Every structure is written in structure tokens, then in C-alpha cells.
Amino acid sequence: MSTVKTEHADWEKAVEFHGHSCPGLATGFKVSKIALKELETIRPSDEEIIAIVENDSCGVDAVQVIAGCSIGKGNLIYRDYGKQVYTFACRESGRAVRIAVKKPGGRNERQGTEERIKQILALPAEDFCEVRHVNIDLPSRARIFPSHPCAECGEWVMEPRARVKGGKIVCIPCAENYGRGW
Fold first, then answer.
1. How many CA atoms lie within 13 A of 11 on its CB side?
2. Other CB atoms closer than 10 Å to residue 139's CB: what's the count?
3. From start to end of 14-79, where are the E strands?
């Protein structure tokens, strides 16, 4: 399969997962492709690639599809910094890359969505982002922990997140007096 066909198929998978195409999705798509190229790897089947995302934008959906990272597998780490910055690391090689998206210069705010998407996808990497190879401490692989019922609300809580209140095991919301009914 040609690179162009693969890119198109990958883009379609990301759009399907996200629900629509948009500039934010294109940003995450491009960042993920750059990261895999820089790390000299492909989308893994499990949690071999780790992504640390510093925003909760549409682009994170593309990271999940293209890099195979998810919160459920424990290899997608979300840090609420509000920055278009993404760090990817490969467990096998120990290499990591930090990608900071550059502010689009001179963008016409009246430019249509499809034109913006095409522009993002067509930009050379050096015009789109700053790529730096970095050293990071790799987080441990995802673990499965026992769960316990909260003594106050009765909902099950994973052991490492449980708290002790009045000598009883409780969940964080009950420990902090939020209880049920958020």
C-alpha cells in the first residue's frame, strides 16, 4: 500500500473515531505521524508507545487512533496545561520526542475549515512544530488493582484511589465530602 493511501486511510480512521474532521484533529494527526517517524516505529498493538498530552483538544483523539495510546491502557497521560504540546516515548528503545505546535502565523480567520485542515496536513514539519528529542522517566505499565466498596456510597473504588475515613475504606469523593449526586 502506498504512503499516500495509508495516510488517507489513517486520516479516515481518525475522522471516524472523532466523529468529524476539524483543524484540531488534523493537528493531533500530524503530531502523531511526526512522532512515529521520529521514534522510528509504527502504531503498536499494545502500550509500547506512551503519549503525554498537555491539552484536551480534538487532537488527542487522533493520538489515540494513530499512536495507539489510550487512558484505558495506561499509555495516554493527560496533563491539563492548555498547551499544544505532545510528548511520545517508546518503551522498547527508551527514546522520547516532545512536539510543540507552533502558533499558526498569518492565518486568515475567515479561511474555511477544510482549507485549514489541508493547510495543517500539508505543512512541512519544521513549519508546523518544534521537535525535540528528550529524556523522560517512562511510567510503569498499566496495572490491575483490587477494588473495594466505599463504606459511604457503596460504589466500588480501585484500591490505590481508596481513602480511609473514620477507619473505613471510602472513595475520594466521599473522603472529601462530595458523596453522591455530583
1. 17
2. 14
3. 49-53, 76-78
Q: What amino acid is encoded at 97 in this protein? A: V
For 58-146, strand residue ranges (E) read 76-78, 85-90, 96-101, 129-134
Q: Are 92 and 42 in contact (CB under 8 A)?
A: no
Domain that holds residue 84: 3-134
Residues of the chain with pLDDT under 50: 105-106, 181-182
pLDDT of residue 23: 94
Mark whether 103 and 21 lie in a shared domain: yes
What gap in Å lies between CA 64 and CA 43, rounded to an integer?
10
Give a yes or no: residue 25 inside a domain. yes
CATH number at residue 105: 3.30.1330.130
Count of structural domains within the chain: 2
Q: Is 25 helix (H, G, I), strand (E, B) or coil?
A: helix
Instruction: Check: CB of residue 133 under 8 Å from CB of residue 97.
Output: yes
pTM of the predicted protein model: 0.79
Q: Give Cα separations from 93 to 72, 76, 79, 89 (angstroms).
A: 23, 18, 24, 8
Give the cell for residue 84: 499544544
